[in-house]
Amino acid sequence: MTTSPTRSQQYRALGLSTFSFTLCFAVWTIFSIIGIRIAEDLALSDTQLGLLMATPILTGSISRLFLGIWTDRYGGRWVFGILMITTALCVYLLTFATTYPMLLVGALGVGLAGGSFIVGVAYTAAWFEPGRQGTALGIFGAGNVGSAVTNFGAPFLLVAFGWEQTAQIYATVLAVMGVVFLLVAREDPMAQERGGEKAKSFMEQMEPLKELRVWRFALYYFFVFGAFVALALWLPHYLIGVYGLEIRTAGMIAALYTIPASLFRILGGWMSDRFGARRVMYWTFIASVVCTFLLSYPPTEYIIHGIDGDIRFTLDMTLPMFIVLIFTLGFFMSLGKAAVYKHIPVYYPLHVGAVGGVVGMIGGLGGFILPLTFGVLNDLTGIWQSCFMLMFVIVAAALIWMHYAIRTAEREEWAAHKEQTDLPELSAPHLFYPLNRTHQQTGTNPPPPRD
Question: Is residue 415 part of a domain?
Fold first, then answer.
């Protein structure tokens, strides 16, 4: 049986993992700023720029699968520290690239920073009891604010030193943190159990992925996280193109989106513990449908043939209106990111790394696919707002699927004359959490709640 960690040990682990993830996320989104200068230097199209921005997201997404498995097997301390040092080396080597293909190859290495998310989730979750995991993971997930660090700080470094030196500064800071993490962090409370158990095969670790529920969670995360990353990358370019802003101003406004979309994840974790993750997901998707619909409306001029002549008026999204809507969208997406990951340690306490890795991978793929698609849509349609049109379709589909799944489960429960919810803490915690603790101690899998 594992000894319960003290509060000071929990806070130490949470602080180290959150700060490390913040730095990794700042590196992961570095092309949102230096990519604009590179595009100017190499005369790239929007499609080429979108691919360059999205390439690190691809690596960061795919790597989450095996990094999650390694964290379940070896623990977060070593995986996290070595990952940061390796990524720092890749960022430094990027500065020697001189052609577009070389930059794409370098961007693949930079993308390893994105895999840090699932390492931190598994490491952090191991330190906290189920009733506090939502809040703890919400605090950890606030490391997404690293994108705001890049959007706010990188433009000034870029103007002062150029993109190569900016990347080198990022690499140095990340390498130092990797060494610090290896020296200061401690093995998580699950380390003793991992050492005493026979290592599970890859197929055993992937067993939960047979459930459709896991892939539904992945679609949720495709929007709340993948679209967040995509917008964090795309917004500076969007603001420069639509409103004619210069890069430093565009970066600061983009930070107004990324900061709340990161920090309010803490609130989302607390709300998921307090009110239930299902309810928070409903709030997230409904608000996001409204925001993306309004943001997707392009500037339009109307002519009404009236009695005394034509009446002309124009509908256009002003910059202040845009900032308010993007801030609101970021706020609700942050709640949704926390709510999705509240599900995973509750349903799959012994497979947080594997299941969380797959969900994170699919979500991260949204951050790869969407910026590339935004660029393609710009080139094909010539409409800047086409990116929000696509996001509207995705979030509407996620809301419909979630509502259908919940209503289907409720009908089955009513027919069986029993009450269970999508997340059991909403109504009957005594039916689930003690069962989890029993199975965690015996090393067996608890039966999942009905979906």
Answer: yes
Sign of CA dihedral 283, 286, 290, 293: positive
CA gap 219, 411 in Å, rounded? 23
Locate tokens 């706020």: which residue?
331
**CATH number reported for the structural domain that contains residue 220 in this entry:** 1.20.1250.20
Number of domains in the chain: 1
Q: Is residue 203 part of a domain?
A: no
Is pLDDT of 447 > 60? Answer: no
* Ranges 98-112, 149-163, 221-235, 416-430: which has the least confidence: 416-430
pLDDT at site 1: 41
- Distance, C-alpha 344 to centroid of its chain: 15
Domain presence at residue 321 = yes
How large is the average pLDDT for residues 8-26? 92
Report the predicted TM-score, pTM, of the whole model to 2 decimal places: 0.69
Domain around 180: 10-193+213-300+314-442
Reported confidence tier of residue 227, pLDDT bands at 50, 70, 90 = very high
Q: Which among 60, 411, 103 has a CA at the least distance from the CA of 232?
A: 60
Spatial contact of 63 and 111, defined as CB atoms under 8 Å apart: yes
Asked if residue 33 lies in contact with residue 151, where contact means CB atoms within 8 angstroms, the answer is yes
Cα within 13 Å of Cα(293), Cβ side: 8
Scan for tokens 């999205």, then name that residue. Answer: 54
